[in-house]
Design goal:
six-stranded mixed sheet, globular, 8 helices
Length: about 240
Amino acid sequence: ARQARAQGLDVVTVGESPDADLRIHDLVLDGSTSTCRVFRAGTDLGELRLRIPGRHYVLDAVAALAMGLRLGFAFDALAEGLGRFTGTGRRMELKGEVAGIRVYDSYAHHPVEIRGDLEAARALAGEGRVVAAFQPHLVSRTRIFGEAMGVALGAADDVVVLDVYVAREDPDPSVTGRVVADAVPLPADRVAYVDGLDEAAHALAERARPGDLVITLGAGDITGVGPQVLDLLGGA
């Protein structure tokens, strides 16, 4: 931000840092809602209550709020509008619930996103467990971040890892989903490495029990696994 300002750019920073132009205070993640207070230059502008779980989505919302304030809109009107937003597809999207097991899908494909969505999933799960499936996206990204992806997945209780979804690049036999699976810091019986979507769906359905939250993560075709899991649970 300092470099941008030095170049004459108009910059507004948001976050929980004391240096942020719009600062988040008293953040509470409670189930499917996220609540915080927003301060500007030490002044409490008011409460922001979102119908979306997750710290990272709160930061996104406050960034949108900052733009609205810069355009001259009132805080209360902006907060009301953001409070009505219920999210978008593939961002902590509820796919359904069967037998007390909720199934979500999200586009997270970077370690920071994985960590953020699992934090949100934990808030949603309450006393239940978080059972996650992850499909790495791109060979190059997995080569660079594969181990970090695995470490981030350790925030779940059970993990299923698929092979790399290859797009825009040639496959590399030395870079597979195994890189991610081997880095998950959970006991071996709580981590599974599977070949395909069908196997992933069955692995999730076998691990999930009433009260759990199942979440599929990745930018590839793993988005189709959630409905399969619901079908399997419904037929159990």
